[in-house]
Design brief:
11-stranded mixed beta sheet; 3-stranded antiparallel beta sheet; about 450 residues; elongated; 15 helices; alpha+beta
Amino acid sequence: TTALQVDESLLTGESVPVTKITNPAEADVVLSDRSCMAYTGATVTAGRGAGIVVATGPLTELGAIAGLMRAEEMSATPLQLRMDHFAKIIGIAVAAAALVAFGSGVALGESIEDMFLVAVALAVSAVPEGLPVAVTITLAVGVRRMARRKAIIRRLPAVETLGSTTVIGSDKTGTLTENRMTVQEIWTPGHRYSLAGGIPDGEFLEGDEPAAIEDERALHLTLLTGVITNEADLHWSNGDLTTTGDPTEVALLLSALTAGLEPGDVRRAYPAFAEIPFEPVRQYSASIRDRHGQHIVFVKGAPERVLGMCTEMLTTDGPAPLDQVAVAEAARELAARGQRALAFASRELATPVGDASQVSAPAGLVLLGQQAMIDPPRAGVKDSIATCQTAGIRVVMITGDHVDTARAIAAQLGIPTADGALTGTELADLDDKALTERVGHVSVYA
């Protein structure tokens, strides 16, 4: 592998691409932690790699899912179960009544042949042959009423099933969330900004007030650096915005666009001189840009890695000594809310670099800020969940995503997290009794 990253959201629900390495994984780890395996159905987002094929067709993870879908048996609906129970009761009652009539008649001196015909006639007349027709018509009326509410029902009994629902189990990525990484918060020394509205039509707020991007130098440079140290692209076609590239880098471009920074304009204003591409071992990427004859190095990466390259941070009053505790604490707070934080730093080089081969690991940088992103909830989902809960229906999130991310999204959507969250590994370790006890309370499975 060479900086190989793979989007496995189809199989795991994780929105962030996974870095692949050649070190073998433990035998019992879940799919999302098998960093030495690449799967059919996943998409390479960056880097290069070569591997050995170990499974094809139905033996792949995608094939296993297809097999499970084919093997799934169609379960009876609550109405069908009640109708079966009702039919058994009627059958027993009719049989008992026919036997009583037959026995009573024979005891009173009637012929066996006559009483047999009477018993059969009684049994036939007692069967409610109009019931299936009445049930079908009732369900058809229900389907029609649902169609008026823009809900199409394929199987008639499903109409009644909806009325019997007590628990809904839902996937997270792409169902409860938008399945695209979006910057939610930006931290700069002494300031915090949050995104209000959608991407790219929203705006960044500091508290309740709109942030003045041009006036807030650290905020402006944080957004600018997110564009410069970036290999993704935005394209406008017939008024529609399309994106290509790593979801994390796309999120940074959209963040800048939301703040009024057009990525194309920024890149033209800061021509590239040399690049240090991202690699998992490095945990950062850097770009040296030419600005009016002055070379400036811009860096983006993991907060702990970028922090080690900085000696100062950019405050409202200008560069100041780096407060490592405050920066690390801000990164921890963002991570605790299930967000992925990236740090940004820059420095003007004292003398222009003569050749790209002279570029080495940056040092002595000025920390600009951090951008935190997450796959955000879909619009209207929180209201829908609240409506379900009001109706007595419990909503459960079942996702392959990281447990901290799942908890954070659940909290935003109003799904209870007080009883904790269960991971796949923890679930597998529970016996039937413990599972029965936990499943009635836990609403997040990750």
